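Hello again,

I reread your note about wanting to compare the complex against the isolated chains. To keep things tidy I'm splitting this into two emails, and this first one only covers the full assembly. Below are the input lines as submitted, including protein chains and any nucleic acid or small-molecule components. They are followed by the predicted structure of everything together. The single-chain runs will come separately.
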Amino acid sequence: MKTHRRFTAVVLALLVGMIGGLLWGSTPALAQTPSRVIAIAGTVNGPPEQVPLAGQARLTSTLVTDPTFNGPSSVILTIDILTAHGKGLLTNKQYISSGNDQVYRTRLLVSLDTVEITFPFFLAAGPKLDPLARAALASFNLSFDTKTGEIIGASGTIGTPNF
Amino acid sequence: MASFFLSPKESKARLREAENARKNRLEIVKAWSQGQISRRELMKWGFITAGGLLVPKNGLSPFARSAYADNIPTGAPPSPLFGASPFTQAMPRFDVLPRNAVSTLNPAPRERAYTRVDYPDAPLLPLPPELGGGFGPIEGRPPGPIWAHQKFNQFGPQIAVEVTQEGAKVNTTYNPRVPSRLNSGIDPAQAIPLKFHPNMPTQNLNSVWTFNGTIPPKLVQARYGEPVLFRHHNRLPADVTQNGGFGRHTISTHDHNGHHGAENDGFTGAFFFPGQYYDYHWPIVLAGFTTINTGATDRMAGSPDGSGGITKIPGDWHETMSTHWFHDHMFSFTSQNVYKGNAAMFNIYSALDRGNEAINDGVNLRLPSGTTYDWGNLDYDVNLMLADKAFDQNGQLYFDIFEFDGFLGDVMTVNLAYKPYFEVERRKYRFRILNASVARFFKIALSDGSPMIQIGNDGNLLPNPVLLTELDEQGIAERYDVVIDFSRYQLNDKVWLVNLAEHQDGKKTAQDLSVREALSGRSSDPCVGKFLEFRIVRNPAESDQSQVPDTLIPNPDLSKIRVERERVFEFGSGANQTTNNPVTSALGPWGVKTDDGRMLAADFGRISAAPKFGTREVWTLKNGGGGWDHPIHNHFEECQTLARDGKASNVPAWERGRKDVWRLRPGGSVTITMQFRDWGGMFMEHCHNTTHEDNAMLLRWEIDDNGAPFLRPLPTPIPTPQGVTFLRDPGVTDILPTAF
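Full-complex prediction:
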């Protein structure tokens, strides 16, 4: 049978030079580092009005190592927008974020990283679950201890999503 | 970052090298899938390392060093697209399967499998030589009382859905159940060839095996309190070698995550053969129906009655489910068969989630759907099946089982269409998003960062909707239901769904990108970036009457139910096999460690846990390493997530409802609780990275009710074309010491 002949040829060609296998272990490798809370501020442009927002974000980094495959370390970043609020420049109406915006991001562990997320904000007098909520951009410049995954420096701004 | 797939811009020499390696692997894949060789032989010959990896040999492994570039994986050749450009074809809605009268089924469905074991006059199926010749039963369900449909008389089937599994053919009966204007102008009367894009070649007969042999993917619509008899005919080739290079012609169909008896669960070892059918009885009941609201007096526990009212049913309305899917669960071949097309969706409608946004009865949540029918309107309720695929140089679907980490495709598809567009009106839509990939995680956002509202997780409406600008990573088999309001856009605007999760291999997400990074085109992962284009084409003809209430479905209150047992399952690598039954046991590298025992490779004859009927347990699912992620699926009944990494506060808002699949995250753990009630039999828990599942990360558990009415332990089925037998006394290959 043609298939079997081809398969046998492949077997013979590849048997030469085979190397032994790796034995895998199971090595749990997860370490959460202390959170940092930082101030964030900036202006969101776009209709119906410009809104300067200010608030706080909590940044938490969990180190993930890969001793089994000797792969690169990474961090699971948890970004909580704790508060963000401001008044529209046109109407002077109050805008707020929900207070429980949370984003998870897996990132390769490097000494300096810039991470952008968007988060919803809406009129404080309106519904808290507004499907037409606007989006603000939060940008974070982060520096990491590349051994522990801990965030050792962080700053953040708010802006307009404009991709 | 180096990626599994090479860029089309690589040198010709390197692409040629990768193609040769791919062909070499394909020969082995073919021999393996066709049963010419076994995993044990591959290990003996040195193709697979003791740890289970494909040896890193240039010309074989895509992760061996390239001869043309040191330290860079050989890679896999990119899939040819034959000039297909993104967003140039309309996304087809799912193809809704006919709901027939049960009387249309011939032969009629029976409580026990229709074989001569239980019915002496049952017809026999003449078997071709490829299946060993002679005769076999026409129904492949295991015979006898244990595999009889439980409560078949109490929940007699009211609807019949009859499908085939077969090779690729033209669809001439497409029924999207919406007008053409709500299906991007697709004319359902036009025949649909099996192509992933009009520019791409038609798939060969055995390149793709879908339900009814056609695309678009299929959708079942059913109501609570309306039992369905799902008859699945296996019309795949009798000759196991006629598989287009991958895929196994034996199948077992799992209603993910149906709450019913094990005989209808698509148990991995209850597979059936070409020429046979299997009758799955999906009673569609609310969990707890044997103990809660047994008199069916609670109006919240109900089903649309067809004329604007509610038919009350027994059970706990807090257990109402909405979005299922069904797919193959064939032992060791699930990844190949699901990838090849054995995947469909199943919308379940209830008094709460009625599929009609206009009926205002104080129970109906009025989620985006439509108003034409009493229930099950699909106008603004859209199923999305996401899957990454790969193609060989002839444009035929390609799969590589030697990616033990998990197979990745380099072509994004939605509803089996390559990067399509979908026309929408300026109003709210509900999208039921299924990750139907083999190993790829997604992370979805809108291209402009606008908010979406997540209303469901794994087919369960959340206690409270969650406003988000990007969804969490979505593991394989997870379903996220979201609402997007397109009224924020202007006519002729476009906005895209974007995938932010970048993979380097099938082990886990390498990293999650920001929207800006994902849109930049700089990722080496071809499946990052835009994958579905929304075209805002018109204002709605009728006003949008849909709502997203602040409260959807609160969780069932389990606080007064005692926890009978706690168990720990660790999912990891380096598994051992303690059994050697050639049908029931598999070899790793992946495995599961139960209650701090040994890391064991799958054996569907082994009982790893046996919770007592009528009890509640707490299970902790642990990821044994940081180098991979595992989306773990538990069958039978929805669970509640008690903690992540040991803390309740680590459970995000979108996981605070009921679930059946959990991404453990690298090195992480999840603690869940569930009840074992209403039904009995043997079920499973496994990784839904189906490559991991097929390579032994699966265990069997069964509900122990101390001997009555079920045996203890339940005898393990051993299917053959000539009939299903059972493992001899004691009926299992192994029972773990902490199981009972």
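For quick reference: Residues 614 and 677 of chain B are 5 Å apart (CA to CA).

B.
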